[in-house]
Write a structure and sequence with these properties.
By secondary structure, the protein is α+β, with helices and mostly antiparallel strands. About 50% of the residues lie in helices and about 10% in strands. The radius of gyration is 31 Å and the shape is flat.
Length: about 650
């Protein structure tokens, strides 16, 4: 059996991998200072970006939830994989051949992590289906695509394929590639009967469903033959890889455009996604057999950088009753976004694929441009159920619409729609509508239900922001993975509790800045500078503990920042690892490399000057307590030392 990956290979993979490139596959990152990038955290729901990545030191840290780590930890958490699986994935990404403690070349095929085996099976199946689309037996599939306006190039771009008729074409293919039936049962690509497993998709047009990183995790299949007794569309069932509540078809192709244009268009099917993209609406995605829900929103918000500074989400639905019902379901989730949400409904009931086929790309663009605010659509759809030409109808419409308006959380937007509802009903007094809506809001509050689960609130004024997370409390006794904190005050166990210093304390602030510089710019700690830094004393216990870890490591002089931070993380007491992560990624207040160097030198000079001031104070105390007549030699030595310290202090200021 293969052993553990050699430590030096793990370090090599960590150093060679650009953490920004990896994180960019999941989160939209924007520049936030020299060498620092920020985005919405992939580990918790937030409105203001607090997830920070610092490629120079190879780490990420969320100042909102505290999640932190290196590129290996990020892949582990995103893929729900083991440490070894994450290292192997990253090594494959950069083409690095790993060595194992037993001298082998890695685990045997049957020992590879289950997730990677599932991904491998899906990749091979994807290639198989694509190849089958070009065979004579796939003529019905090609005819279907052609009839929807998709040529061969379009089919190749979206990875369309064909599942042959019969019971075991894919099964034989994957068995021939070394997969066991036990493994294949876990993929969702096979059904099971009395005689064993058989192909789930047979005689169908196939679309690969990919995750945000571009890995195939499932398939969607469209019926082509009348003798097929299954549903028109058949998807992969829930598996370890495929969670339909989290999957958005086309997200791998759309993610860059979504981030760039800050727009997300949600359509209803695979062909609609294809039509939109080919028409130039490259921000289009679709859910896979389920409504657009909370987990989809989390993915979308991260890509949109949904922080309240813009962006839009456009839902397209058919004009029939089912489409209107779907739009109202979307309204239930709307206020989880800070982006503006819209609905685009084609009056004739045509979907984007039909529009493109009958009226061209311009019609698809026109559909998106015709979007209306989702609030307006929800209210107007409710009013359509009543005859507003009668008093009774208007009263019924008002009663039915009031809960919809009351569900709008933003007070100003709610007031605006009270006035709009007055006009749509043809009522003379908007105050009456406002009174009813206000009463409904209060009733909902008393009932404890305000329409839908609360979204994450924006960061409150005065709340800790990046660089100040939880500073009023104690540092938690937890590693990068998070966990319960250690209470303030004396610890009942062996793990100490480190209080976060008051950020208004100038000494603590300066000490923190010095540690930030030392962690992020270890090349400055050379020669006499390292000697001075190592000899420094920190008044803040937590900062002194980090400084002790740096001195114990003693490697800042010879290693790059990635390895330097990693070594300090190993040396520091476990409760302070989140603090080290913060210090390593917080942006330094400079916008050019020259400015960074000057800032770092200035901060270190201030630290050294503070140390000199402390030593001078100690020696002045000794001098004052000394009887000069009784011990003239000590008196003269202390005076010489004080003079040398003052000269050193002036030299520091001159160099600054």
């Amino acid at each position: 059996m293969a052993g553990l990956i050699k430590r030096e290979d793990i370090d090599e993979v960590r150093q060679r991998t650009d953490i920004k490139e990896v994180v960019d596959g999941y989160v939209t990152l924007k520049g936030a200072g020299l060498g620092t990038f920020k985005g919405l955290c992939p580990f918790h729901d937030e409105r203001s970006p607090s997830f920070t990545v610092r490629p120079q030191v190879g780490r990420y840290h969320c100042f909102g939830c505290g999640e932190d780590g290196d590129v290996i930890a990020f892949v582990q958490k995103q893929d729900h994989s083991s440490f070894q699986e994450a290292v192997e994935k990253l090594a494959a990404r950069i083409g690095y051949e790993l060595r194992y403690e037993d001298g082998g070349t890695g685990p045997k095929r049957e020992e590879v992590g289950r997730r990677q085996r599932l991904l491998d099976a899906h990749k091979i199946a994807d290639e198989f289906f694509r190849a089958q689309l070009l065979t004579p037996g796939a003529s019905e599939a090609r005819t279907f695509l052609h009839g929807r306006g998709f040529d061969r190039a379009a089919a190749e771009h979206f990875g369309c394929g064909y599942a042959p008729q019969g019971w075991d074409a894919l099964l034989k293919h994957l068995r021939g590639r070394g997969f066991t039936d036990a493994e294949l049962k876990l993929t969702g690509m096979f059904s099971e009967g009395n005689r064993g497993i058989y192909d789930r998709f047979r005689g169908r047009l196939i679309w690969p469903i990919k995750d945000i990183a571009g890995d195939t995790i499932g398939f969607g299949a469209r019926k082509l033959f009348e003798e097929d007794q299954g549903p028109k569309y058949l998807n992969t069932p829930e598996t370890t890889l495929y969670k339909k509540s989290q999957v958005l078809y086309g997200i791998d192709l759309a993610k860059r455009s979504i981030a760039k244009d800050r727009q997300l268009v949600v359509v209803e099917g695979y062909t609609d996604v294809m039509a939109c993209h080919l028409a130039g609406i490259t921000t289009a995605v679709a859910t896979c057999g389920t409504a657009f829900g909370t987990e989809h929103i989390k993915v979308a918000r991260r890509l949109l950088s949904d922080d309240g500074t813009g962006g839009e989400v456009v839902f397209t639905f058919d004009g029939d009753a089912a489409g209107q019902k779907a739009a109202l379901r979307a309204f239930e989730e709307d206020q989880r976004f800070t982006a503006q949400t819209y609905v685009a409904v084609e009056p004739t009931g045509a979907d984007p694929c039909d529009l493109r086929l009958s009226r061209g790309d311009e019609a698809v663009h026109a559909l998106i441009q015709s979007r209306r605010p989702l609030f307006e659509f929800a209210i107007r759809t409710t009013l359509k159920q009543f005859n507003l030409d009668t008093v009774e109808g208007r009263v019924q419409g008002l009663k039915a619409s009031v809960p919809v308006v009351a569900a709008i959380r933003d007070a100003s937007t709610r007031t605006g729609y009270c006035q709009a509802l007055t006009g749509w009903l043809g009522m003379p007094d908007p105050n009456e509508v406002l009174r009813l809506v206000t009463a409904e809001v209060k009733n909902a509050a008393r009932r404890g239900d305000q329409g839908r689960p609360a979204a994450s609130a924006p960061q409150a004024a005065g709340a800790p922001g990046p660089g100040a997370s939880n500073r009023a409390g104690a540092y938690p006794a937890t590693g990068p993975g998070g966990g319960p904190g250690v209470a303030d005050g004396p610890s009942s166990g062996a793990v100490p509790s480190f209080h976060r210093p008051d950020p208004r304390d100038p000494v603590a602030s300066m000490e923190r800045q010095a540690l930030e510089v030392a962690l992020q710019q270890p090349s400055l700690l050379a020669g006499a500078v390292w000697d001075r830094f190592a000899a420094a004393r920190f008044a803040t216990p937590a900062f002194q503990a980090v400084h002790d870890a740096m001195r114990a490591t003693g490697a800042g002089l010879t290693v790059d920042p990635v390895r330097w931070v990693e070594q300090v993380m190993h040396e520091v007491p476990e409760p302070l690892r989140p603090l080290v992560s913060e210090l390593a990624v917080v942006p330094l207040p400079a916008h050019t490399e020259e400015a960074v160097q000057k800032y770092c030198r200035d901060i270190l000079a201030r630290l050294f000057e503070l140390q000199i001031t402390r030593v001078k104070a100690d020696k002045m105390g000794q001098l004052q307590r000394l009887d000069a007549a009784a011990d003239p030699d000590t008196y003269q030595r202390l005076n010489r030392e004080l003079m040398m310290l003052e000269m050193e202090r002036r030299s520091l200021r001159a160099d600054a």
